Request: fold
Amino acid sequence: MRTKFFVTGTDTEVGKTVVSAMLTAALDGIYWKPIQSGIDSNDYGATDRERVQRMGGISEKNTLPEAYFFEHPLSPHAASEIEGVDIDPRRLRPAVEELSSSDRPLIMEGAGGLMVPLSKQVLLIDALAGLRVPVILVARTRLGTINHTLLSIEALKQREIPIHGIVFNGDENSDTQLSIARFAKVPVLGRVPTLPEINRDSLLDVFEKEFRHQDFESSSEQMDFGVQFDPIRV
Reply:
């Protein structure tokens, strides 16, 4: 069965797409962003799928089309209402199960943070509870991230969503990273530093220096939340 991870973040614009591109490239995986909300062109593309292709040097065939695609750069629930499309999270689980039949890792990327509404009734974290895909939480290293990260971890634990680990994004902040590891009691998988240029070579270099391949060889759907995991990398 395919190893699978769901990359989410403590906030929007926290670095989920960069981390997703790195993991897809380093693990020779398949990338999928089920819900794309907004077209916003920059040097790497107009959508996260395009940005992953360019940043990670990923071929188009190794990135999957979105299940829901909205042009408005808004929260998914607001964009879907404007464009007259209802997001049904129940559609995602059969798709994940079908994709899991392959042996290549599946890297899924969420939209915004955990508490982003998908509809007037459902938050992203509610959909994650149904998917049971282990979460990789991306967090900044700057001031305020301890609070945001621990609240996100607590919300995931309350819903018994499996947590594979935390990836930090930004300049090194050892005290912050160690404090989060100590209180969260989930693995800290590594850190993506601020990069002057983001491309396949720079992302693969970061993965080799800051992460361990063996930490991504499996994605257990059941984690013991009371155990302090290794590695804690700062």
Remarks:
- The first helix runs from residue 16 to 26.
- Residues 222-234 have pLDDT under 50 and may be disordered.
